[in-house]
Amino acid sequence: MSNSPAFPRSCDILVFGGSGDLALHKLLPALYHLHREQRLPADTRIFALARSTRALDDYLALAERHCRAQVSRDDFTLADWQSFAARIDYLAMDAAQSADFGRLRERLKHSETRVLVHYLATAPNLFTPIAQNLKLAGLAGPEARIVLEKPLGHSLESARAINLAIGQVFDESRVFRIDHYLGKETVQNLMALRFANTLFEPLWRSAYVDHVQISVNETLGVENRGAYYDHAGAMRDMVQNHLLQLLCLVAMEVPVHFDAESVRNEKLKILQALRPIGGQDVQDKTVRGQYSAGHIGGQEVPAYWFEKQVDNDSDTETFVAVRADIDNWRWAGVPFYLRTGKRMAKKCSEIVIQFKPVPHNLIGDGSGPANRLWIRLQPEERISLQLMAKMPGKGMQLEAVELDLNLAQAFSKNKRRWDAYERLLLDVIEGDSTLFMRRDEVEAAWRWVDPILAGWREHYQRPRPYPAGSNGPEQAQSLLELAGREWYS
Ligand SMILES: NC(=O)C1=CN([C@@H]2O[C@H](COP(=O)(O)OP(=O)(O)OC[C@H]3O[C@@H](n4cnc5c(N)ncnc54)[C@H](OP(=O)(O)O)[C@@H]3O)[C@@H](O)[C@H]2O)C=CC1
Ligand SMILES: O=C1O[C@H](COP(=O)(O)O)[C@@H](O)[C@H](O)[C@H]1O
Q1: Could you say which DSSP state residue 221 is in?
Q2: Cα–Cα nearest to 218, from 427, 476, 469
Q3: Which residues are noted in the entry as NADP(+)-binding (predicted)?
Q4: What is the average pLDDT across 123-150?
Q5: What's the mean per-residue pLDDT of the chain?
């Protein structure tokens, strides 16, 4: 990441889809924190845009309700809210209609000396019309940036079409394809761990690593996003972006510089080296699941098909496990197991690097576990290294013990941890795209995902049921057991 100036230029932020789930739950609370901590340029204005007609006061009441719910009690004060709200305006407009952009330009009275951030928190089918309408309205000048939410399209073809259309309006340096996992502190810590410590890099390869596990498990269901999710599924919603980005950060080579192009060049090479999975292979290398009714934290939870706006005969997957292989020198023969699911037993995102056992057993019977590095991304940020130690007492018995680092506690105790969207919004304002996906990366990810989706359509139509509150379908265990391994959790 480049060293950013102490304060970015004056800025206008336009949130297309300003009344949607993402804007209300994530973007406005993030902007509130940035405002409260004086990290936004002083005269920043925020325009929330959506079709529904509502008075500004009604919109602000809606936004306040959500911010209160998302921001901790200690961080939410009426005075901060009121000064933040003074920055916000609401405009009812149809972003697919070019005529409505005239009204937007009028309201905005934009000056080209200000940075203009267009945040597209809408469905991807609006990305192309919005970009074209912005151009027609003269709101896509050199000071303007566009932020595109994931998943970008629903296939390689649709992603390419969007990228092409966006590229005709905004050059690549002004396109910010967001993947909020890259904004998480612990995810960035992964790069610090790898590239700022001599300890791990020599071991970070097939000679020493047996396999890697990347799990992003949620206890939440689809909440009020059934209409979107039922057409997307876990593969498009999570694997195509968040899980593949995590895989890239674990597997990539050391970049030449720590800047946007160098980091993204290395991530791209990993995506290009992923061994394709398609046709009948999907039966051996992937597991699709869908939650049935169950219990989480003592609460009864309905089956997926019972959720709002979900087809009651839906075959959409809410769980995916995949064995991915990276065909390059460093990772030949090292499987990367990816797993993500909704309504799982526990919320937990983690990366486990399982090292190989010692080459010759001098101590014990050789059946003990080998070193294992756990990188816990959430709920708590932790890194622990499993080492073998001698059990106290007579004789030489080995037992695994942990060197455990709680990252939140290791750094200033009373400091609030930034949310991913806070950091990424600031990066957009400052024009730093290191933590955003480049066009070719997104397309390479779809190039790997598309054949799996096609394989499923042909050979794996019904997802395996798993009870809400479990660890996913049994077949996900078999994916590892067949290779003499198991999921760690
Ligand atoms: N929600 C989340 O947690 C996450 C969402 N995303 C992505 O963010 C994007 C938005 O998701 P989400 O907030 O959940 O979606 P929602 O359906 O909750 O919100 C969509 C928003 O777009 C507005 N809208 C729809 N059509 C138009 C139009 N023609 N012109 C102007 N505004 C329009 C809607 O308001 P109105 O109907 O009044 O026009 C609403 O404000 C999607 O691409 C999604 O994949 C990514 C990560 C997480
Ligand atoms: O992008 C998405 O991410 C969330 C999970 O994000 P997290 O930061 O809470 O781990 C997921 O619930 C949602 O379905 C998906 O669209």
Answers
A1: -
A2: 469
A3: 51, 150
A4: 96
A5: 94
CA 407 – ligand 2 centroid, Å: 22
Active-site residue, 295 included: no
The answer on whether 184 is annotated among ligand-binding residues is yes
Of 25, 122, 222, 228, best ligand 1 pocket probe by most atoms within 8 Å of the beta carbon: 122
Where are the alpha helices (H) located in 86-225, listed in sequence order?
Answer: 100-108, 127-136, 156-167, 185-195
Q: How far is CA 190 from the centre of its chain?
A: 14
* DSSP-derived secondary structure letter, 180: G
What is d(CA 76, CA 64) in angstroms, rounded to the nearest whole number? 10
Handedness of CA 438, 440, 445, 449 (dihedral sign): positive
Picking from 343, 350, 420, the residue whose alpha carbon sits closest to that of residue 33 is: 420
Q: In DSSP terms, which residues pair with 374 in a beta bridge?
A: 352, 384
Contacts (Cβ under 8 Å, ≥6 apart) of 55: 90
Q: How far apart are the C-alpha atoms of 477 and 321, rounded to whole Å?
A: 9
Over the stretch 317-354, which tens digit does the pLDDT of each residue have?
A: 999 999 999 999 999 999 999 999 999 999 999 999 99
Q: All domains of the chain, ordered by start, with CATH?
A: 11-149 (3.40.50.720), 182-417+436-481 (3.30.360.10)
